[in-house]
TrEMBL record:
<dbReference type="InterPro" id="IPR045024">
    <property type="entry name" value="NDH-2"/>
</dbReference>
<comment type="similarity">
    <text>Belongs to the NADH dehydrogenase family.</text>
</comment>
<keyword id="KW-0520">NAD</keyword>
<dbReference type="Pfam" id="PF07992">
    <property type="entry name" value="Pyr_redox_2"/>
</dbReference>
<dbReference type="InterPro" id="IPR036188">
    <property type="entry name" value="FAD/NAD-bd_sf"/>
</dbReference>
<keyword id="KW-0274">FAD</keyword>
<feature type="domain" description="FAD/NAD(P)-binding">
    <location>
        <begin position="10"/>
        <end position="346"/>
    </location>
</feature>
<dbReference type="InterPro" id="IPR023753">
    <property type="entry name" value="FAD/NAD-binding_dom"/>
</dbReference>
<keyword id="KW-0285">Flavoprotein</keyword>
<protein>
    <submittedName>
        <fullName>NADH dehydrogenase</fullName>
        <ecNumber>1.6.99.3</ecNumber>
    </submittedName>
</protein>
<keyword id="KW-0560">Oxidoreductase</keyword>
<dbReference type="GO" id="GO:0003954">
    <property type="term" value="F:NADH dehydrogenase activity"/>
</dbReference>
């Protein structure tokens, strides 16, 4: 063991997301100052992604879905940088800082919680014109764009421009994509009361999905319920349809439709962090067969990374980037990539590292699904609650309240929980804000304009 931290075992955690944050705080609770902990992440905060659809809908202030790592993880070293190489054979990781500096960090225990990235397809114009919905700035940008477009469309005399400005296209109807479009449509419906020049029929929300259904995690009946609800609200849901092209904002779909859009949001799936499947960057074993597990780190049920030659006793992985056997669902099943599992795997992982430090046997990860819930806009929701072997179908206001309640409970830190609730309470009094500030993406524009003596370049 390479003890470079005052004789204490050094736990190096890659990624400060759901897995990373949970593991670090649980380890601190169980082992106190007995271990040195380092967390590496290019962002100095953890993003609570389940709240992003509500950020995109202006229901939650963006900062309130972020947990600042340095504040939450006191006594833990936080390195702001990206993992560039994992060399488990040498017990080291190379981290690249924003300045391009390379830091080599050694460890006694390694935790890989590098999450996932959007899975893109080679569709013309997609990379140039679309935006993802995994990061807080993306959700903010979607919200700002939609609200700014309402203001522009209400002013323009050009019917073609107006149509493009008011057409919002979302690709992917899984939980994240389905919630994002539903919440955004709800926000627009709310904002329209302040736009006498715009009518609901001017707005076009399009949701495209290649599957024959949306919200795959729901039961067939619930999927039908959601589909009806979205269609009744005027969201055009195109099923078994693919995006063929998005060049210059001109959308072409496989059903022969063609239309211009000013906003294209890509939510059609995720893949494990690509640094893990890059042979030159990482020597950890990943699943190579095509399918939903491809690129994920192979782990045993106790979350140790498993190689051809047996498990690595000092390397653990969990969350979206790991193929974790789902013992509660049966043999051959793997945990789906969600926060419910990521947080609980983080807890199990921290306990297993503590056990390893203390020479006790490790315990397998076992978690029975608690259910799934989605919000579809204010007071609208759907979900399945698992109570033992019983499954309860919840819809409408109760489902919406349960989803919100669960996420407040799961949101890290008391301060953020309180801020989210306070924001919701304020919205009840003064309604959601209707200001979009897309100018935030080019903050120097006004200054440059002044520098050019008021002349537009
Ligand atoms: C819009 C949206 C809505 C969702 N809604 C739900 C929901 O309602 N319920 C639910 O259970 N799940 C939901 N999820 C899924 C859930 O957020 C993820 O499954 C969960 O966050 C995975 O945890 P993780 O720790 O594996 O990854 P993450 O929480 O994504 O953390 C990965 C971390 O790794 C960091 N990282 C990336 N690259 C590097 C690098 N090279 N070096 C160092 N660090 C790096 C990232 O910055 C990030 O902080 C949603 C996701 C999205 C995007």
């Amino acid at each position: 063991m390479t003890n470079t931290f005052g004789g204490k075992p050094h736990v190096l955690i890659l990624g400060g997301g759901s897995v990373g944050l949970t593991t670090a705080s649980e380890l601190r609770k169980s082992l106190g100052a007995e271990v040195a902990i380092t967390v590496v992440d290019p962002r100095p905060y953890m993003t609570y992604a389940p709240f992003l659809p509500e950020v995109g809908a202006g229901s939650i202030d963006p900062r309130n879905v972020l947990a600042p790592l340095r504040k939450v993880l006191t006594g833990t070293k936080v390195v702001t940088g990206s993992v560039a190489a994992i060399r488990s054979a040498e017990h080291t990781v190379v981290v690249e800082t924003e300045e391009g500096e390379k830091l080599e960090i050694s460890y006694d225990y390694l935790v890989v919680g590098l999450g996932s990235v959007p899975r893109l397809l080679p569709i013309p114009g997609l990379a140039e014109n679309a935006i993802g919905f995994k990061q807080v700035e993306e959700a903010v940008s979607v919200r700002d764009r939609i609200l700014a477009n309402l203001a522009e469309a209400a002013t323009t005399k050009d019917p073609k421009a107006r149509k493009r400005l008011l057409t919002f296209t979302f690709i992917g109807g899984g939980f994240a994509g389905g919630e994002a479009v539903s919440e955004a449509e709800d926000m627009v419906r709310d904002a329209l009361r302040y736009y006498p020049d715009l009518h609901a029929s001017d707005i076009r929300f399009v949701l495209v999905d290649g599957a024959p259904f949306i919200f795959p995690e729901l039961t067939e009946e619930q999927r039908a319920y959601v589909l009806n609800q979205l269609r009744e609200r005027g969201i055009e849901v195109k099923l078994e349809t693919f995006l063929n092209s998005a060049e210059n904002g001109l959308i072409k779909t496989s059903d022969g439709d063609e239309f211009e859009t000013d906003l294209l949001v890509w939510n059609a799936g995720v893949k494990p962090n690509p640094v893990l499947s890059d042979d030159e960057a990482s020597d950890l074993p990943v699943v190579t067969e095509r399918g939903p597990l491809m690129g994920k780190v192979q782990v045993l049920p106790d979350l140790r990374v498993n190689t051809e030659n047996g498990p690595l006793d000092d390397v653990f992985a969990a969350g979206d980037c790991a193929a974790v056997p789902d013992l509660a669902s049966g043999e051959g099943k793997f945990c789906p990539p969600n926060a419910q599992h990521a947080v609980r795997q983080g807890k199990r992982l921290a306990d297993n590292i503590a056990r390893s430090v203390q020479g006790r046997p490790l315990v397998d990860y076992y978690h029975k699904n608690l259910g799934v819930f989605a919000t579809l806009g204010m007071y609208k929701g759907v979900g399945r609650l698992m109570l033992g072997d019983k499954e309860i179908d919840v819809r409408g206001l109760p489902a919406w309240a349960m989803a919100r309640g669960y996420h407040v409970y799961a949101m890290p830190t008391l301060g953020r929980k309180a801020a989210v609730i306070a924001g919701w309470a304020a919205n009840l009094i003064s309604r959601r804000d209707i200001i979009g500030i897309p100018q935030a993406e080019t903050p120097r524009a006004a200054f440059e304009y002044a520098a050019n003596s008021g002349k537009k370049k």
